[in-house]
Each structure stands twice: as C-alpha cells, then as structure tokens.
Design goal:
This protein has helices spanning 2-19, 29-51, 54-72, 78-106, 109-141, 144-160, 178-197, 206-228, 242-271, 276-287, 289-292, 294-325, 329-345, 349-356, 363-392, 395-415; strands spanning 418-422, 425-429. It is mainly alpha-helical. The protein has a two-stranded antiparallel ribbon with strand order 1-2.
C-alpha cells in the first residue's frame, strides 16, 4: 500500500495538476509532502508505538491513511491535496512503526532478520509496480482512484486488527527522548522543504536559505541532545559501524534514483514526442526488474554483495551523465533498462548486508534506523532534484540522483571490507 502511495502518486502528478486549481509548482509536493512527513514522523511514531498497544497504534495509523486517501479524492485544489498528503505521511509513519513493533513483539531475535528481508523485498517490488498499478487505476477511475485505492487497503488492514492482541510491552521504556524525536522531525521537514523550493526564478532567496539555517540548527541541537539522552531516539552508535552506515547511504541512493527516474523519464519522453506505448515500455524497463530479480540478487549477494552494490551505483551514475548529453528516445529506453537492472539486482541486498553488521540483540533498532535513513535520503534526493529541475530543466534531476549514487558508491567502496577466502574460510579485509 505505501509504495503505491509514493510511486503511484508520482505517476498521477501530471493528471492531478491538470485537473485541480493551484500553481503547477505544487505538483511535486504531492509526493514530497507525503515522503517528508513520513520521514520526519517515523522516529516519534516508533517511540510512541513502544509505549502503547502496538496493534492499536498500527490500526490508528491505517485509519488516518484511509481517511486522508478518501478526502484526497475529493480535494478541491492542489494546496488542500498537499496538506492531506502530509497528514497521510504521518499516518503511514504510524503504520510502519506499529508494524515494526508488532514484528519485534512476535518474532524472536533470530527470526527478525529474515522477516525484515521479506519486508524489504515487498517494499522494492511494490515501489516498482506502483506506476503500473497507478496507470491501471487512472484508466479505470481517473486520478482520484490512485489515492482511494491505498486508503481502501488501509481500511481493510485496520479492520483486520480487530480481535488481535494489543501486544503492549510488559516493560515499556521509562524515559522518552521527546526532544530528540522532535528535533529530528523539524530538521527533516525544514531540509526537505528548502530543497524542494530550490533557488530558482520566483523563489525569494530568504525562503530556502532560512529553512536551511533551521535544518542546520536542528541537526546541531539533535547531536547534542542525543549524546546526553540516557535512551536516545536515534541510536547514533549504530551509525558508527562503517558498513552499516555505507549500506544505508546506498539504499537511499537507489530509492532516490528510482523515484527521480519515475518523475523525470516520462517528462523527457514527452519532450521527445514518445508515444504512450513507448512510455509504458520505458517505465516497464525501469520497474519490472525489481519484481523478478530479487531472488537472483539474494544468490549473488552471498559472494558479491559489495561488488554488486558498488557496480550498480556506478552504472546509475554513468547513466545519469549520459542523459545530460542526449535524451533521444532510444537512449531513454536504454537508460531506463540499465537503471531498472541495477535496482533489480540489488533489491534488498543493502538491507540484509547492513543488518549482518548489527548485533542480533539490536536487530530491531538497526532495522528501524535503516528504514529512517533510507526514507530520509530518498526524500532529500527527490526534493533536491525537484528544486534543481525548476531552475535547470528535467534532465538535471537525473544529475542530482546520479551524484547521490556516485557518492554512495565511493562510500561503500571505502567503508565495506571486501571478502576473501583463506583456507576455505571466508574472511573480511581491505
């Protein structure tokens, strides 16, 4: 449901902006508002879920998503829709945090890595299928159905919790790092808004500039608060594990490339007068590999995880460079295929590799922080691409995503040890 709410909404943005009143510049915020509030609220939602009945918290989040989805279909203008999407992002964060807490309450530590691996595979596959499902929904009932359908699934999920145990923690944490969670939310929201606004024509410099200062101040305060908190909202010590940190950056870069590609490639195709059929093929090349290659990716990752991830990141970066030179229809199709192949062959790989470097007793915290990092980086990438595109055109958005992939590739190469075998035993070393 949630991937459809992200990539499905991306596919619906052109139709929505054509039918609703409001500035066209608000179109990307249909996605940014949802992603940004999801990332900003996730830590606070996670802390709340651990202190309340997990199942009930999950159900309330689904009710929020269902209500905002139904109201989004009735939105009279773009500002109203963006506001509803922001509220939906908060509900989605409640669902994600409640769901993760339920997993932690039900599954023993040795089973959690497998469960989170399945969840990552579902996430990637659903992100990839989002545009296809959205196109089908729009063909049946227009753009409102793209928001109603996830809301309907959320309503069913809320009803499915009836009769389930509340899964309240027998020993809820005594302290609550409210300051850390709040500062994290403010920092993410300010940074996303600033990047999304950009510094293009018609945007006063003091708007994004002031928000950047707020984000920097929030990040500075966050570090200080977390260092002093007895139970910090953000387990910063996990980010000190080089491989964990590197793979978190990598998965954020991959997801950023996907969401930016979904937004940019159709626009480039439209500028080149690509037919609807050619555009569908292009989107299929971009998304279908993530639904059919995860099992192969898991096999390859047993021996070649580091090489697989860095190679795919470098390939995405090179593809973004090529798109700065030419955007001919044939090149767009090849670019979509290359990016799709890279995403499919790494689906779930960074997630599993990152958790391999986290002690099993902290698997839950590691998975939660990994998801937060991934969503934050994905949102920042999309926001930055949106701001740059407003000033320099569509292809520049792919340059932003490509730069993120190149940075992530260098980080992984530097931080993750390469495997080697000595006497038949697999070891790790530089």
């Amino acid at each position: 449901m949630f991937p459809l709410a992200i990539t499905g909404a991306t596919a619906a943005v052109p139709d929505v902006t054509a039918h609703l009143r409001g500035a066209v510049a608000l179109g990307p915020w249909i996605v940014l508002a949802y992603n940004g509030l999801f990332a900003a609220a996730l830590l606070l939602a996670g802390a709340s879920a651990d202190r309340l009945a997990r199942t009930r918290f999950f159900a309330v989040g689904n009710i929020v998503v269902a209500a905002t989805g139904a109201l989004s279909a009735l939105a009279p203008d773009l500002p109203s829709l963006v506001a509803l999407r922001a509220a939906g992002g908060v509900g989605a964060a409640m669902c994600a945090a409640g769901g993760s807490s339920m997993v932690l309450a039900v599954y023993p530590p040795e089973e959690r890595r497998r469960v989170y691996g399945y969840a990552g595979a579902v996430l990637g596959g659903s992100l990839a299928l989002g545009p296809v499902v959205a196109q089908a929904l729009m063909a049946v009932g227009g753009w409102p159905l793209v928001f109603v359908a996830p809301g309907a699934v959320a309503a069913v999920a809320a009803l499915a919790t009836l009769g389930l145990p509340g899964l309240r923690s027998p020993e809820p944490p005594e302290s609550f790092d409210l300051a850390g969670a709040a500062l994290f939310g403010v920092t993410v929201a300010a940074a996303v808004t600033a990047l999304g606004m950009g510094f293009g024509a018609g945007v006063p410099w003091w708007g994004p500039g002031g928000l950047i200062l707020v984000a920097v101040a929030g990040a500075t305060g966050l570090v200080r608060v977390e260092r002093r908190a007895p139970e910090p909202a953000i387990p910063l010590d996990l980010l000190r594990i080089p491989a964990y940190r590197a793979y978190a950056v990598a998965t954020g870069a991959f997801m950023g490339m996907l969401v930016v590609g979904l937004a940019v490639l159709p626009r480039l195709g439209s500028a080149q007068s690509m037919s609807p059929g050619e555009t569908a093929v292009m989107l299929g090349l971009l998304t279908v590999p993530s639904t059919v290659l995860p099992l192969l990716a898991a096999r390859l990752a047993r021996r070649l995880a580091r090489q697989l991830v860095t190679g795919a990141l470098f390939a995405c970066a090179v593809t973004a460079v090529v798109l700065q030179v030419t955007d001919a229809p044939g090149v767009l199709l090849v670019a979509a295929g290359v990016i799709g192949l890279c995403l499919g062959l790494t689906e779930g790989v960074p997630d599993g590799q990152a958790l391999n470097h986290v002690p099993s007793r902290r698997g839950g915290a590691g998975a939660a922080l990994f998801s937060t990092t991934r969503m934050s980086l994905e949102t920042f990438t999309l926001a930055a691409a949106t701001g740059v595109m407003a000033a320099l055109g569509p292809s520049s958005g792919m340059a932003v995503a490509g730069a993120m992939c190149l940075t992530a590739a260098l980080v992984v190469r530097r931080a993750v040890p390469s495997p080697r075998r000595v006497g038949g035993e697999r070891l790790y070393g530089r």
